[in-house]
Amino acid sequence: MKRFWKITLFLFLFSVTLGGAMLEAAPQRLRSVWANGIRYLDLSDAVAAYGGSISGGSTQSVATVGKRRLVFYPDKRYAMFDGMRVNLCSPLLARGGRVYLGQLDHANVLVPFLGSGKRYRHPVTKIVLDPGHGGRDQGTAGSRLLEKAVTLNLSNRVAKILRAYGYKVELTRTRDTALSLDERSAYANRTGADLFISIHANASSDRTVRGIETFCMTPEGAASSNSGKPDSRRYPGNANNEQNFLLAYNVQRALLGRTGAEDSGVKFARFAVLRGVNCPGVLIEVGFLSNRSDEANLGSAAYLDKLARGIASGILNYHRSLSK
């Protein structure tokens, strides 16, 4: 009799465990609609899949998931993730009293942000830093500074910090030499980089514009942040869409935290150096040389150290998130 009850108890526990695993593995069904050739998923359903809820009215939808707060705006191509601006591939859609998120944003922004980092785990041993421009290609210029000099100076500072943490770090250029965009991504691929970080300084015809922005590769089928035209082509850089976003988010957040700079957001672009790289990669615009205040900061050794520590912290936070 005792043996019978042991077997019965074992079978019961096994069935409960198996049933729970099956329920956990079952795909979450999200209500969807189509608009302008884009599939949209119900935002409330998407957030509920992570134990969250939606509140708000006609001007914004606030998603609360644990301690995280995401604010979405109907008809806008951006949202605020824990107070930081994140651009979207498509504007949010309001229809029939419900709010819908583009499927590409769900897959490449919301899911990696709310999901477990273990899903995206990969080695992070070798990091390639790419100081933008060089040689005859000086990049943009401020009243005193050249982009090519700022990026090389900053990249060397980042490399020193990352090496102190035990990472293997290489630079696409170590001197004032010219490299094509294809050569930069090819170098990262040839050396077996686990992460690719391209560092640049920005410029605008509007000299009041300032701040930091971090770009990752635009998912296939989406329009880049500065373009309204979708592109369905798939590039090597699209193999890591979700990791690209996570890396960009962590780097942007760490940079803002270290510097207190104006937040220009996480954005999407099909920059050549991001299109061709095989590992997760981002392109950082660390400030506007066309803005007097930003240029003064970029000419300061103390501020460059803040930027360097911000970039390094973002990489460390990304790496740590992969085990969560």
Mass-distribution shape: globular
Order of helices and strands: HEEHEEEEEEEHEHEHEEHEHEHH
What is the residue-mean pLDDT, rounded to a whole number? 92
State the strand order across the main sheet: 11-10-12-15-13-14
Largest sheet: 6 strands, mixed
Helix content: 25-40%
Distance between the termini: 45 Å
**CATH architecture type of the largest domain:** 3-Layer(aba) Sandwich
In total, the number of strands is 15
Strand content: 15-25%
CATH fold assignment of the largest domain: Aminopeptidase
Please write the CATH class name of the largest domain: Alpha Beta
Number of domains: 2
**Ranges with pLDDT <50 over ≥5 residues?**
1-27
CATH level-4 homologous superfamily of the largest domain: Zn-dependent exopeptidases
Helix segment tally: 9
> In angstroms, what is the radius of gyration?
22 Å
Your description of this structure?
Residues 1-27 have low confidence and may be disordered. The chain has a six-stranded mixed beta sheet, sandwiched between helices. The protein starts with a helix and ends with a helix. Helices cover 37% and strands 24% of the residues. The chain has two domains: 32-115, Copper amine oxidase-like, N-terminal domain (Copper Amine Oxidase, Chain A, domain 1); 120-321, Zn-dependent exopeptidases (Aminopeptidase, 3-Layer(aba) Sandwich). It is of the alpha/beta class and 324 residues long. The chain is globular, with a radius of gyration of 22 Å.
